[in-house]
Automatic annotation (TrEMBL):
Keyword Transferase: yes
Pfam families reported in the protein's UniProt record: Glyco_transf_8 (PF01501)
Keywords from the UniProt entry: Transferase
Segments for region (Disordered): 292-316
Gene Ontology molecular functions: glycosyltransferase activity
Native organism: Modestobacter italicus (strain DSM 44449 / CECT 9708 / BC 501)
Residue ranges that the Swiss-Prot or TrEMBL entry lists as coiled coil: none
Protein name: Glycosyl transferase family 8
């Protein structure tokens, strides 16, 4: 029997708006046989969940309400480790995506990619190549990893957990290992469950191209040509649903505006910037665009990323 694949998101109330926009993009960029799930950890009875439940039901997406206490007191970011407990029994293979992503091209090769038992596919965190292009940033990043106990041997393969391709059968074991080995230290890990996933899976993580988890702050740089984005991950505030700011501009802000136009009942859940906050972030983004762009456009940064891209599994 053919294995059943699913793209899965997790969210809490307050985060459904942008998560459902990404899920709609995933629906448009996957085979009809692939199922799309959004698991909302909350009360199950909020007006927000009801509004998005109607949107999902009419769009080929399944929104599942899960009581937040099912996370056993853990921060919601750990919810990706519990997917196997709440997905329908027939789902065999999982592609987990963070809700602050945009799916901008077909992702079937990743959804359907075979993976070794006990392993997973992921994209190296941008810290991996950034530390190779700047000694100052290398010291800062290594300090974070030192505090979490990330061994030097896996730092070159350290993945960002916002895109994780894993078999459902392996999620339970991953969760058990994370909680057993780091349960009393999870709050001390600098990058929370991302650090824990890397520590537990280690060399069983197979790196794939940055195309599958492209950092939003690198839009408009030479990195777009080196690893053409299929999934874009907006990793820090502000984000494109907040305002049309650099480096993403109007183009990546538009999906949220169109979503509200198509589903006006969701407008009250759109978290937009205005007034002083918008001015502050506009100035911040312009400053970062000028100061960081020089580093991202450097030959050292391009060389570091090209070398890492050569050491990835080709998904076609």
């Amino acid at each position: 029997m053919a294995r059943r694949h699913a793209v899965c998101y997790t969210a809490t109330t307050g985060y459904l708006f942008h998560t459902v926009v990404s899920a709609l993009q995933a629906r448009a960029n996957t085979s009809p046989d692939t199922e799309i799930y959004v698991l909302c950890f909350g009360s199950g009875s909020s007006l927000e969940e009801s509004a998005f439940q109607r949107v999902c039901a009419g769009s080929g997406i399944t929104l599942l309400s899960v009581p937040r206490d099912r996370l056993n007191g853990l921060h919601p970011t750990y919810s990706r480790l519990f997917l196997d407990e709440f997905l329908p029994a027939h789902v065999d293979e999982v592609l987990y995506l963070d809700g602050d992503t945009q799916v901008v091209a077909n992702i079937d090769p990743l959804v359907e990619a075979p993976i070794p038992t006990g392993g997973a596919l992921g994209v190296r965190d941008p810290m991996v190549f950034i530390r190779e292009s700047s000694n100052t940033l290398k010291k800062r990043i290594d300090g974070w990893w030192d505090s979490s106990g990330i061994p030097p041997g896996i730092r070159a393969r350290y993945i960002n957990a916002g895109v994780l391709r894993i078999s459902r059968a392996d999620l339970g074991g991953l969760r058990s290992d994370v909680l057993r080995e780091y349960g009393d230290k999870l709050g001390l890990l600098h990058f929370l469950d991302q650090d824990a996933i890397n520590l537990v899976l280690g060399k069983r993580l197979q790196p794939i191209s940055m195309s599958w988890n492209f950092p939003g702050f690198l839009l408009g740089t030479q990195m777009v040509e080196i690893a053409r984005p299929r999934i874009i991950h907006f990793m820090s505030d502000p984000r494109p649903w907040n305002a049309a700011l650099p480096p993403w501009g109007v183009h990546y802000h538009q999906p949220y505006a169109q979503f509200v136009k198509d589903h006006p009942q969701t407008a009250e859940y759109w978290q937009r910037l205005s007034g002083r906050a918008k001015t502050k972030y506009a100035l911040q983004q312009r400053y970062k665009h000028v100061t960081e762009r020089r580093a991202h456009q450097s030959s050292a940064a391009a060389r570091a990323l090209r070398e890492l891209e050569r050491d990835t599994r080709d998904l076609g």
